[in-house]
């Protein structure tokens, strides 16, 4: 929750329907610094970016919807370590198609196959159904052969940041900082963001701890108590730390035009070359 020029946090007390009489409303408190790691397009992090104009000077963030399933398959159809990424059908029928997306297929021990399909959410065709396109993709001969005789044992979906390096906002603000997918640290070429999110947490901890412990005015680290009198601070060292980390360099290497640009435009800017390089690094 935003209050004035700083970020105020809320802790929701756990309650159940059988204990409604014991329910207490969320408890507000005003820490000196709040680290926001709220996944892709978290409502609080989006409000923070609007409040403090953190997107000024950056490209608009773009998004994709990823649908994923885990299959258990017969051992004869399993090849441990097998990796397959695809572009094109069923979303793109020609190189100039505007709809963006792709898929992944991974074989994991002992006999599991992880499959997923990502559709850019800036598609123009109102009749596109991402889940239905996922089902169509599974019937392609080069995909179907991996799943024959198998059973889907789990499934899920989530939204992905796809704007990349040029859509990363300013990371710090008075009273807090943005971490992980709240800041858009997903490597969309690798479809991987856990490693960058973990690193952002490490850099944040390294930046925040000295800020709070080297100032005698902050007593929270000694007593565990938060005093509103301490006020909010901005961990500017976190921004510098991320820019000097391997996360910045990795995202810069795979930076590409926004998803709503045609494949022709991407080709003219060298995106396939970067994608090929990222694929080689996966091996």
Q: Explain this structure to me?
A:
This protein has 283 residues and is of the alpha+beta class. The chain has two domains: 33-59 and 164-272, FAD/NAD(P)-binding domain (3-Layer(bba) Sandwich); 63-161, D-Amino Acid Oxidase, Chain A, domain 2 (2-Layer Sandwich), CATH 3.30.9.90. The protein has nine helices and twelve strands. The protein has helices at 43-51, 130-138, 141-147, 194-213, 220-223, 236-243, 246-253, 263-268, 271-282; strands spanning 2-3, 6-7, 9-11, 27-29, 34-36, 63-72, 83-87, 101-108, 112-120, 151-161, 172-173, 176-178. The strands form four sheets. The chain has a five-stranded antiparallel beta sheet, with helices on one face. A hairpin with a 2-residue loop joins β11 (172-173) and β12 (176-178). The longest helix is centred in the C-terminal third of the chain and has 20 residues, at 194-213. It is elongated. Mean pLDDT is 81; it is low at 10-16 and 258-283.
Q: What would the principal axes of the Cα set say about the shape?
A: elongated
Total domain modules:
2
Q: Name the strands of the widest sheet in spatial order.
A: 7-8-9-6-10
Judged by helices, strands and strand pairing, the structural class is alpha+beta
CATH superfamily of the largest domain: FAD/NAD(P)-binding domain
| Name given to the CATH architecture of the largest domain | 3-Layer(bba) Sandwich
| Average predicted local confidence, pLDDT | 81
- Total strands: 12
Strand content: 15-25%
SSE topology:
Blueprint (H helix, E strand, L loop, with lengths): L1 E2 L2 E2 L1 E3 L15 E3 L4 E3 L6 H9 L11 E10 L10 E5 L13 E8 L3 E9 L9 H9 L2 H7 L3 E11 L10 E2 L2 E3 L15 H20 L6 H4 L12 H8 L2 H8 L9 H6 L2 H12 L1
Parallel strand pairs: 5-12
Antiparallel strand pairs: 1-2, 3-4, 6-9, 6-10, 7-8, 8-9, 11-12
Helix pairs in contact: 4-6
């Amino acid at each position: 929750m935003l209050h004035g020029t700083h970020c105020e946090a809320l802790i929701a007390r756990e309650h159940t329907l059988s204990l409604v009489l014991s329910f207490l409303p969320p408890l507000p408190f005003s820490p000196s610094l709040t680290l926001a790691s709220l996944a892709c397009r978290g409502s609080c992090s989006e409000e923070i970016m609007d409040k403090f104009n953190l997107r000024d000077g950056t490209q608009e963030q773009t998004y994709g919807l990823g649908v994923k399933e885990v299959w258990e398959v017969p051992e004869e159809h399993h090849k441990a370590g097998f990796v397959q990424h695809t572009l094109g059908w069923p979303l793109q029928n020609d190189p100039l198609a505007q709809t963006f997306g792709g898929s992944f297929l991974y074989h994991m021990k002992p006999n599991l196959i992880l499959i997923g399909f990502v559709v850019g959410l800036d598609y123009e065709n109102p009749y596109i159904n991402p889940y239905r396109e996922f089902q169509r993709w599974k019937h392609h001969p080069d995909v179907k052969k991996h799943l024959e005789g198998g059973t889907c044992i789990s499934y899920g979906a989530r939204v992905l940041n796809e704007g990349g390096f040029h859509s990363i906002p300013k990371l710090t603000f008075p009273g807090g900082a943005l971490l992980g997918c709240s800041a858009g640290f997903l490597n969309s070429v690798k479809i991987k963001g856990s490693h960058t999110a973990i690193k952002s947490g490490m850099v944040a901890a390294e930046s925040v701890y000295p800020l709070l412990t080297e100032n005698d005015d902050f007593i929270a680290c000694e007593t565990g108590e938060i005093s509103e009198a301490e006020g909010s601070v901005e961990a500017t060292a976190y921004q510098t730390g991320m820019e000097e980390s391997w996360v910045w360099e990795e995202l810069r290497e795979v930076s590409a035009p926004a998803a709503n640009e045609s494949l022709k435009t991407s080709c003219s800017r060298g995106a396939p070359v970067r994608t090929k390089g990222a694929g080689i690094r996966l091996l």
